[in-house]
Amino acid sequence: MGTCMFAHRGLSAQYPENTLAAFQAAADAGADGIELDVQLSKDLQAVVIHDHSLERTTTGTGFVKEYELQQLKEFDAGSWFAPPFANETIPALADVLTWAKGNQLLLNIELKGQVWERSQLKEAVLPLVFEHELQERVIFSSFDHRLIYEIQKQEPQLETAILVAAALHEPERYLRDIGVRGYHFRVPFLLQEEAVRLQQHGVQLRPYTVNDPYWVEMFVKWGCAGLFTDDPVMALQLRKKYEG
Fold this sequence. Notes:
The structure is a single chain. This protein is an alpha/beta fold and 244 residues long. It has a single domain (4-243), classed as Alpha-Beta Barrel (TIM Barrel), CATH 3.20.20.190. The chain is 35% helix and 18% strand. It contains nine helices and nine strands. It has helices at residues 20-29, 69-72, 93-100, 118-131, 145-154, 171-178, 192-200, 213-222, 232-243; strands at residues 4-8, 33-40, 46-48, 106-111, 138-142, 159-164, 182-185, 204-205, 226-229. Strands 1, 2, 3, 4, 5, 6, 7, 8 and 9 form a nine-stranded mixed β-sheet that branches. Helix 8 packs across helix 9 (232-243). The mean pLDDT is 97.
């Protein structure tokens, strides 16, 4: 397959992000996987939304953590993007995992809770993945590297990755210390020579968020394990062109 193309928050260039409509559109477009963001509701349920506050992508106000799951589901999570999507709601992670049983997509679940919510977030998310028997298709990532370390220690069979928004010094040593294979780096904080060295150490490189065709083609040529893009249709076309 080469470089796996992950639809960032679903097919978010054309659909409201982190909704089932965006995820289904990504599947229909031929994406290899989807990326989604997960945090906790007031009643400690795993919900799929990027921002900690509700205003940008829903009709709600205030913070996600101030509402229980059923209250969050009452908000419109689509009309901000375009009126035809007014019926879209904030999905529970369980809703997305149930949907994913009907396809073969990889699922990159970015964990976005506060650092003091680590244990609660793990307890809300990990059992769901095993209940839906999707552990072979899930990658957990987070900017909270301590959380990723704890998940890796608890469930070493799961694939995990750290998210970074800077150029790290000797990231291969850091990854080895954590015991994690996935390195999800922000474009453009990596040189090709550094990428080669990381790949020689067995690191899975997946840059984000790659929407420029120049960068897509470059990362495919580098042999990155995957990349995250708002426009997987474009990315898939470029991969096909390069890989034949």
